[in-house]
Amino acid sequence: MLYSNLSLNSQGHLAIAGLDACDLAAEFGTPLYVLDEDRVRGNCRTYVKAMQAHFPEGSMPLYAGKALCFRGIYPVIQSEGLGADVVSAGEIATALSAGFPANRLFFHGSNKTDAEIAYGVEQGIGCFVVDNSNELAVLGREACERDITQRVLLRVTVGLDPHTLAAINTGRVDSQFGVPIETGQALSFVREALSTPGIEVIGFHSHIGSQIFEPDSFCDQVDRLLAFACDVRDELGYVASTFNLGGGFGVRYVIDDPEVDLAANIRVVAEHLNAGCTKTGYPLPRILMEPGRSIVADAGTTLYTAGGTKEIEGYRNYVMVDGGMTDNPRYALYKSAYTVINASRAVEDADYVCTLAGRCCESGDRIAEDIRVARPRRGDIIAVLTTGAYNFAMSSNYNRVLRPALVTIREGKAHLAVRRQSIDDLLGLEML
Ligand SMILES: *Cc1c(COP(=O)(O)O)cnc(C)c1O
């Protein structure tokens, strides 16, 4: 099994955190998102522990809620001692309505609207991650109007290509996120921020991409951020107390992906930072990281019911499931690889080569191609692993397919965290 929380039970079924996947499907219906809360907590603890051990006091992980945002995740994140990233009024409202403290929220986004900026300030967001000078001006005005000083991080791009997919690579100079260092614009951005009334700059943010397995890219990023911070110090006399390194540590979707030792990687990055600060005489900043995927991805599984199979001689075998790109668009977007298990026949040989197709009217509606599973019969429960991140969060109603329910497993019990969307929900917005 790919993960330690998965097992085979005496019925020959897949069990998730000890619960029979077929029973879960029978109780809650399919498609179904299942999230193992203990595994989320384990991932949180790995970050908190490693960051506390290796980075200066005050360093902490911020959960990037865009990976999986629903109310039930926030008490988990909060009790594990993480802060959280939010990117919209919707994410802010979700976190706040779950009782998450506003002062532990970091408000991201490359194009926050005026209304969202006002809402964020009003709600007492701890820190804005300011993307550009337009935003800075609006934020300064809002803060002054309310007679407060808003803490901010300034988002810069370090010009790095961490050799991941172009679509999820945001650290390059040519990016719609942040302000580039290379062109000199980032320095002007800092100068401007330092003289904007109502704004207190606590440091710099950069995010270089996603699904990064090695610490080298993060070390390069630290070098560049530090060099930039030294330039800022020399030019403007400003010293940053905080570096935010963004998110992006990879997770293992298939057995061929490397296993990521988060703690070891964090130690390497920390040692690199310490050496850099010693060399440049820069005071060691506290470090923030923004893991999303590596907190929730491997805690999530999607359960589908197999429908028909289609064997096209000389070509391929299709297994159709009752979901697809509407609950998981990642294959359609990035050709992301997944591990698939026939949960109803988890003890049988996984020797049937097939393509898992969704139910939408799109030939691109696939979850995985040319995978091996135990040959499915109609009605079998098909489990797709590692769907905790960017599945629920990216789901849609394309073809008027209803969004699945989300169930969390805590201490051996399943809890319905988000109910299945209904036809009434779907039609409820329509005014004519
Ligand atoms: C997407 C994103 C993250 C989270 O990335 P993961 O790969 O899920 O860890 C963190 N910070 C920023 C700014 C992002 O855009």
Description:
The protein is of the alpha/beta class and 432 residues long. The protein folds into two domains: 6-36 and 297-427, Lyase, Ornithine Decarboxylase, Chain A, domain 1 (Beta Barrel), CATH 2.40.37.10; 108-291, TIM Barrel (Alpha-Beta Barrel), CATH 3.20.20.10. Helices cover 30% and strands 24% of the residues. It is built from twelve helices and 21 strands. The strands form three sheets. Strands 4, 14, 15, 16, 17, 18, 19, 20 and 21 form a nine-stranded mixed beta sheet that branches. Strands 5-6-7-8-9-11-12-13 form an eight-stranded parallel β-barrel, surrounded by five helices. A three-stranded antiparallel beta sheet has the order 1-2-3. Helix 8 links the parallel strand 11 (199-205) and strand 12. Helix 2 (37-54) packs parallel to helix 9 and helix 8 packs parallel to helix 9 (262-280). The radius of gyration is 23 Å and the shape is globular. The mean pLDDT is 96.
Please indicate the percent range of residues in DSSP E strands (runs of 2 or more): 15-25%
Q: CATH first level of the largest domain: which class?
A: Alpha Beta
Q: What number of domains? A: 2
Mean pLDDT over all positions: 96
Q: How would you summarize what this structure contains?
A:
The chain is α/β, with parallel strands linked by helices. It is built from twelve helices and 21 strands. It folds into two domains: 6-36 and 297-427, Lyase, Ornithine Decarboxylase, Chain A, domain 1 (Beta Barrel), CATH 2.40.37; 108-291, TIM Barrel (Alpha-Beta Barrel).
